[in-house]
Amino acid sequence: MVERLAAAGHDLVVYARRAEAAADLTRLGVRHTNELAQAAGGADVLLLCVFSDEQLAGIADRWPPACLTAPCSHPT
Q1: pLDDT reported for residue 51
Q2: How far apart are CA 30 and CA 26, in angstroms?
Q3: What burial letters (b/e) apply to 36-65, b meaning 16+ CB within 10 Å?
Q4: Phi-psi region for residue 28, left (φ > 0), alpha (ψ -120 to 50) or beta?
Q5: d(CA 32, CA 19)
Q6: Do residues 51 and 73 touch, judged by C-beta distance below 8 A?
Q7: Phi/psi zone of residue 69: left (φ > 0), alpha (ψ -120 to 50 degrees), beta?
Q8: Would the pLDDT of 8 be above 90?
Q9: Residue among 5, 3, 43 nearest 21 (CA)
Q10: CA-to-CA distance for 5 and 52, rounded, in angstroms?
Q11: Distant-in-sequence, close-in-space partners of 10: CB < 8 Å, separation ≥ 6
Q12: What is the pTM assigned to this prediction?
């Protein structure tokens, strides 16, 4: 998803938890951060992609309930 948004010219700041992900983002020319607040600051749209209930639980307490919507799942 990030590759497509970057290729379309969107200004992105991506929260990267893993060093490998940050390196991939750098190769794409995408700004990345280790801080959720920096990724969300000034954003018109905020997308969160988590891959397990554990990951969701690890970030859910950092956001007001109104910011979280019903989860959806799709194959990529």
Answers
A1: 80
A2: 6
A3: eeebbeeeeeeebeeeeeeeeeeeeeeeee
A4: alpha
A5: 10
A6: no
A7: beta
A8: yes
A9: 3
A10: 23
A11: none
A12: 0.61
Q: pLDDT of 17-76, one tens digit each?
A: 788 988 999 999 999 888 878 888 878 887 777 788 888 777 777 766 656 665 555 555
pLDDT at 64: 65
In the block, residue with structure tokens 């992900």: 21
Bridge partner residues of 31 (DSSP): 13
Give me 73's structure tokens: 């799942």
Map residue 23 onto helix, strand or coil.
helix
DSSP at 68: -
- DSSP-H helix ranges across the chain: 2-7, 19-28, 36-40, 53-60
